[in-house]
Amino acid sequence: MTVKFPPEHIVIRPPVEAYSVLIAVTGGCSWNKCKFCGTYKGMYGTTQDYALRPIEDVKDDIDQAAKYNYHGFPVFLAGGNPTSAPTDYLVEIIKYVRIALRNVQRVSCYAKALDILRKSDEELDKLAEAGLDIVYMGLESGSNTVLRLMKKGTTAASFIKAGKRLLNAGIKLSLYIILGLGGYKYSEEHVKETARVLTEINPTIFRFRTLNISPSTPLWEDLQSGEFTLLSPFENLKEERDIIANLGENVTSQVFNDHVSNYCSIDSTNIKVDREMFVKTLDSYLNDPRIKKLPRKNLTQM
Ligand code: SF4
To answer: Does ligand 1 lie within 6 Å of residue 39's CB atom?
Structure first.
């Protein structure tokens, strides 16, 4: 049975925010159409409509965290896209966090590129000044073909513009890339264009995830009908290897494979320095005959 959660119920957070204070700002996702995404469509046994929480309710939750002495912890403002909220609302919450919870290490949230583009440079500056340190954004692919097929609702050009404007405002940017999102048909384009967009943005961090398809996503039907084909572990690793190898020399991002869906756990604190090591390590995996026989994880939740 699938239950519908109210907006104050937090469905997901990034793995890196596992030990953070989680404060729900929005529920659900205002877009909720990406074909591969089941987060608010029942993947966790729950659905959740998009909603912006009343500011007094959010402040009550921050007061509760202060009461329980969560001072000095990082704070994650939860919900699919808190940046859909008016800037003044967000600034008030971030300032409240920083006063109520002393010595906060980091304030972060998910962000959608189109929400960022709707904000002026002055608004982004205000968010940075209030103390928004980093946003997590799903680029997924740099290929417009893949983005369109997956109904991401955003183009590569919009991601580049939003990413650069965030970085210019002094807000760190962590992008997610989904290996295998182009299936067999668009794998080459997915690799080439993703490397191009990452090179244009040079985000603070980018993180790999590997496509698994949940029955609660629209992509599940394409998988069942044979219209979409999942890549093997070998092919996913090859995509990652080729994305890294195709990055421009300017890219200094941190790179993480910090997700259960991945087939490797190689990380880098600066891909410009570690690129050769990264590619060589992936080549050594790809040259190991056992990798070709590795079964797919076939996760239905991520
Ligand atoms: S991937 Fe992100 S933008 Fe797309 S539906 Fe899921 S939460 Fe919304």
So the answer is: yes
Quick one: 153 and 288 in the same domain?
A: yes
Contacts of 173 (CB under 8 A, 6+ apart): 134, 135, 137, 163, 166, 167, 201, 203, 204, 205
Residue 124 lies in a domain: no
Tokens of 54: 């009343």
Cβ of 11 closer than 6 Å to ligand 1, yes or no, is: no
What is the reported pTM? 0.97
- The pLDDT tens digits for 32-73 are 999 999 999 998 888 999 999 999 999 999 999 999 999 999
Q: In this structure, is residue 173 part of a structural domain? A: yes
Instruction: Report, in angstroms and rounded to the nearest whole number, the Rg of the chain calculated over CA atoms.
Output: 19
Residue closest via CA to ligand 1's atom 6 equals 37
Task: Read off the amino acid at residue 158.
Answer: S
Report whether residue 216 contacts ligand 1, using a CB cutoff of 6 Å. no
CATH assignment of the domain containing 91: 3.30.750
> What is the distance in A from the centroid of ligand 1 to the CA of 165?
21
144 CA distance to ligand 1 centroid (A)? 16
**Residues 272, 198 share a domain:** yes
What is the distance between the alpha carbons of residues 59 and 139, in angstroms, rounded to a whole number? 31
- Is the CB–ligand 1 distance for residue 302 below 6 Å? no
The string of pLDDT tens digits covering residues 96-115 is 999 999 999 999 999 999 99
Report the Cα 248 to chain-centroid distance in Å.
22
